[in-house]
Every structure is written in structure tokens, then in C-alpha cells.
């Protein structure tokens, strides 16, 4: 199971790097929205259609991951909030 967890961590790391479009080591609101749109385009049907999401829903997603509410999502915040969701309840 450790190997599977490591693979998932590597996947999240790659998603973070892709989302951090300007390479500053954090993700802002626009970068998070862009990566979510890209994932939705790549995997249609995975989530609700992007065009049906309200600005408030986008902001709620961002605020959930941005735990210190400084307007930037660090890699640690990104991993801490996504890895448990990917690994399941035992993470």
C-alpha cells in the first residue's frame, strides 16, 4: 500500500506543478480554477459541468483548500486537502 500512496503523492505533486502556472510555488484563485477546468475537460463526467458552477462555489473550493486564508494555496495545503480525498478515510 505504501507504493500506491507514493504514486498518488507523485500525481498530486504533478497536478500542483501544472496548476502553479507562474511557478511561484503557490496557486492563486485563477490558477486553481484553470486546473479544475482542465481536469474537467480531460475527464468529462467526473464532476458537475464546469459551466454550471457559480462564482460562490469556485470561491468555496478555493477557501476550503486555502486553510490559512492568505489568498494563496501552498503545496502543503494542496497535499493536505487532496491526498486524504484520494487515499480514502485511512489516510
Automatic annotation (TrEMBL):
Gene3D superfamilies, sorted: EF-hand (1.10.238.10)
MF terms (GO), sorted A to Z: calcium ion binding
A Pfam cross-reference name: EF-hand_7
InterPro entries assigned to the protein according to its UniProt record, in alphabetical order: EF-hand-dom_pair (IPR011992), EF_Hand_1_Ca_BS (IPR018247), EF_hand_dom (IPR002048)
Keyword Calcium included in the entry's annotation: yes
Keyword flag Calcium: yes
Record's keyword terms, sorted: Calcium
SUPFAM superfamilies assigned: EF-hand
Residue intervals of the EF-hand domain: 7-42, 53-88
Protein name: EF-hand domain-containing protein
The organism of origin for this protein: Aspergillus avenaceus
Origin organism lineage: Eukaryota, Fungi, Dikarya, Ascomycota, Pezizomycotina
